[in-house]
Design brief:
By secondary structure, this protein is an alpha/beta fold. The protein has ten helices and seven strands. The structure holds S-adenosylmethionine. S-adenosylmethionine (SAM) binds next to helix 2 and strand 2.
C-alpha cells in the first residue's frame, strides 16, 4: 500500500495535464453528488483518468480502453503485478545509469532493449518493463511504430532518466483496482456503461497539417472517416442520455475556412481553449495553440467552483 497520489507513469503525445482546468469547467453539475462510472475510450497515458480517480470520491468505477495492446498490457501489469514489474525496472535503471558518460554504450543498451521489445516474446511483466524503459529513455517520450507494429523511436538525450518510479507504480496499481482495463476499438466501451456514465474522449487529433501528424500511436490511421465514426458514437451516447466531453485539434486555427469539427459537432457545445503541445520535434512549434473541447451538455458553468 502507498499514500502517494497516482500520476501518469508515461510520457505520451497529447498528454492532457494542461487541459485539466478547462475539463473541470465542462464537467456535469451533479458530479460531486451522484455516483458515476467514468469511461475513457482513448486512455493513452491517462492524465485525466488519474486526476478523476484522485479528485472525485463519487467515482465508483472507471473503464479505460485503448487500441494499443502494448500500452494496455502495461496498465494490466501495473494493476496486477506491480512488484514484479518494479524489480525488472530497477535492474534496467541500475544498468542504464551505470553507463552514464558513454553515449555509445547507452545507445547499444537502448537498441538492444528496443529489439527485444519488438520481438514481443517476453512474458507480460517483462514486456511491460521494456515498454516503460523505452518510454523513459527514447526521444521526447514518443510512441511510434511502423506498419509492422515495430517501435522505431531513437534514443533520447537524457542523462539519468527515472526508469523505475517505484512509489508511483505502487500508487497507480492501487488506483487501478477500481478500473476495468480494455484493449480494442473505442466503440466497445458502450458495453460497459452504467446508469450514470461520464465519457471523456481524447482521440488522436486531426492533424493541423500534413507534417504535424503525430497521430500514429498505434498501427492504423485515425483519419477523417474515423473522426466521423467517433461523432456518430457520441450522438448515440447522447441519445442514450450519457454525458460526454471530447477534445480535438482546432483545425480552424490553421485555416479559418476549415469547418470540419464546427459542422460535424454542430448539434453540441463547442469551446475553444488554450493548449500547449509538449511533444513536437521543433521547439518553435511548441507554442500556445487552441484546441476544441466539445460536450453534449449545455450550461455547466456554475458548478465548477465547488470542486
Ligand atoms: C491523443 S492519445 C490519448 C492521449 C491521452 N488521453 C493522454 O492524456 O495522454 C489517443 C489514443 O487513442 C488510441 N487509439 C487510436 N485509435 C483508436 C481506436 N480506434 N480505439 C481506441 N483507441 C484508439 C491511441 O493508441 C492513443 O493512445
Amino acid at each position: 500500500m502507498t499514500d502517494k497520489i497516482a500520476k501518469p507513469f508515461l510520457k505520451w503525445a497529447g498528454g492532457k495535464t494542461q487541459l485539466i482546468n478547462d475539463i473541470k469547467k465542462a464537467l456535469p453539475k451533479d458530479i460531486l453528488g451522484n455516483k458515476f462510472t467514468y469511461i475513457e475510450p482513448f486512455v493513452g497515458s491517462g492524465a485525466i483518468l488519474f486526476w478523476m480517480l484522485n479528485n472525485f470520491p463519487k467515482l465508483e468505477k472507471a473503464v479505460i480502453n485503448d487500441i494499443n495492446e502494448d500500452l494496455i498490457n502495461t496498465y494490466k501489469t501495473i494493476a496486477s503485478r506491480p512488484t514484479e514489474l518494479i524489480s525488472i525496472l530497477e535492474i534496467f535503471q541500475n544498468e542504464f545509469h551505470a553507463l552514464e558518460g558513454s553515449e555509445d554504450n547507452k545507445k547499444l543498451y537502448y537498441y538492444q532493449k528496443r529489439e527485444l521489445y519488438n520481438i514481443r516474446k517476453e512474458e507480460q511483466s517483462g514486456q511491460a518493463a521494456l515498454f516503460i524503459f523505452l518510454n523513459r529513455t527514447c526521444f521526447n517520450g514518443l510512441y511510434r511504430v511502423n506498419n509492422k507494429n515495430l517501435y522505431n523511436v531513437p534514443m533520447g538525450g537524457y542523462k539519468r532518466p527515472t526508469i523505475c518510479d517505484k512509489e508511483n507504480i505502487l500508487a497507480v496499481s492501487n488506483a487501478l483496482q477500481k478500473v476495468e482495463i480494455l484493449c480494442g476499438d473505442f466503440e466497445q466501451t458502450l458495453n460497459y456503461i452504467s446508469e450514470n456514465s461520464l465519457f471523456y474522449f481524447d482521440p488522436p487529433y486531426k492533424p493541423l497539417s500534413e507534417t504535424s501528424s503525430f497521430n500514429s500511436y498505434a498501427k492504423g490511421d485515425f483519419n477523417d472517416s474515423e473522426q466521423i465514426r467517433l461523432k456518430d458514437f457520441c450522438s448515440k451516447l447522447d441519445t442514450l442520455n450519457h454525458t460526454w466531453i471530447l477534445s480535438n485539434s482546432d483545425v480552424k486555427g490553421k485555416n479559418v475556412n476549415d469547418n470540419f469539427f464546427d459542422e460535424l459537432y454542430s448539434d453540441f457545445t463547442i469551446q475553444r481553449v488554450d493548449a500547449r503541445r509538449s511533444i513536437n520535434a521543433n521547439p518553435e512549434k511548441r507554442g500556445s495553440l487552441k484546441e476544441l473541447l466539445i460536450t453534449n451538455q449545455t450550461n455547466n458553468k456554475e458548478y465548477v467552483r465547488a470542486i
